[in-house]
Amino acid sequence: MNRVSKLAELLSALDSLSDTGFALAIHIRFTRPLLLYQSYSSEWSEIYSEKGLMLTDPVVRWGLERTGVLSWDDPGLDDPAGVVPLARQYGLRNGITISTGPVTSRTISGHTRSSGPFQPDEISRLKCLVETVHEVTEGLDALDCPEMEALRALDFSRDRLSSG
């Protein structure tokens, strides 16, 4: 199986576990991901972008600073800008963040769903999927190669899913 097909399969599995969406920033280097996929609603994506929330998003900050799994309901989460409560207003509930890889090439994902908190076995499955995405995309550096173009063309947006 080639890398594009494998990544499409992994993204599909992530999406099936996150009915209200996910975001996946792969191999973040110098604050910029090599690849970025997200399936949150276009409404939330627009608000997030317009307000520049990535700069104050506590789950992104957490993922850049450490690896592991974080519940968005963690009482120790420092969120002075109120990003998590705002996300809830747009239907992003029961969120978790998964961060893996070295600080020089970190992969961070966020997952939400409507049916209640993720259970430990589901969190383990998501963590395994994100770690596999990180491994499968290791070594991608040629930003204009045909493989990168094919990887960038993979679309898991909610708008595509609801209209297809």
UniProtKB/TrEMBL annotation:
Residue intervals of the Transcription factor LuxR-like autoinducer-binding domain: 33-100
Molecular function per GO: DNA binding
Keyword annotations from UniProtKB, A to Z: DNA-binding, Transcription, Transcription regulation
Cross-referenced Pfam families: Autoind_bind
Coiled coil location: none
Claim: Transcription is one of the keywords in the record: yes
InterPro entries: TF_LuxR_autoind-bd_dom, TF_LuxR_autoind-bd_dom_sf
Designated name of the protein: LuxR family transcriptional regulator
Native organism: Rhodovulum euryhalinum
